[in-house]
Amino acid sequence: FQELSPDSIIFFRKAFTSPAFRAATSRSTRSLSLKKWIARRMARSVTLPGNWVLAALVVLWALAGPDAATASLGVLFFVALFGLAVAGEIVEVLAQIWGAKKYGCSNKSTVAGMLGAIAGAIVCAPFLFGVGAIFGALGGAWLGSFAGERLLAGRPASQAVTAANGALVGRFLGMVVKFGLGITMIVLTATAIWPG
């Protein structure tokens, strides 16, 4: 490797201290340590795919973090962490199925409600800084079930609304349980990384 010339050093010093660079990298992002950055992302990521984002951030922490902090993260810890993430997905789906069936949704409409929830979450994810995905999933579950009841099952509007309400309630309950499992994942991770 060649040594940097004095002109190169001056160029880099000016580039990294310029107003344009400072504007592009705000004070808060420059001062964040890896630990604080991951902790903030973990706190923001406990809904929809957030449990998987959380698990990925913990894996990143285990790979890039200091050895003293990551020594307590063993195989059992990661089995529990990913087990909670999988349980969140299963509960979310089963709760929507339960709600839809309880309120009289047909099988085709239940599937349409699940597809609607996924589509709604994807379409609305860019809104409200990602929180729109929650409302999109709920609205998509309702709309998918309603459309499935009306178009696929040929039921009257009143029965379709009742069935769609069941899918909405089930999806919401599943999201609440999944959120709780996300909080459990954060607590599990925090106690493993910072045991004091």
Summarize, please.
With about 200 residues, this protein is mostly helical. The chain has helices at about 5-15, 20-25, 25-30, 35-45, 50-65, 65-70, 75-100, 105-125, 130-150, 155-195.
- What characterizes the major β-sheet? none
- Secondary-structure-derived class: mainly alpha
Instruction: Tell how many strands the DSSP assignment holds.
Output: 0
State which percent range the strand residues make up.
Answer: under 5%
Query: Helical percent range?
Result: over 70%
The whole-number mean of residue pLDDT values reads 80
- Radius of gyration equals 23 Å
Q: How would you describe this structure to a colleague?
A:
Helix content is 80%, strand content 0%. It has 196 residues and is an all-alpha fold. The radius of gyration is 23 Å and the shape is elongated.
Ordered list of secondary-structure elements with their pairings:
Elements: H1 6-17, H2 19-24, H3 27-31, H4 34-44, H5 50-64, H6 67-70, H7 75-102, H8 107-124, H9 132-152, H10 157-193
Task: Name the features.
single chain; 196 residues; mainly alpha; 10 helices; 0% strand; elongated
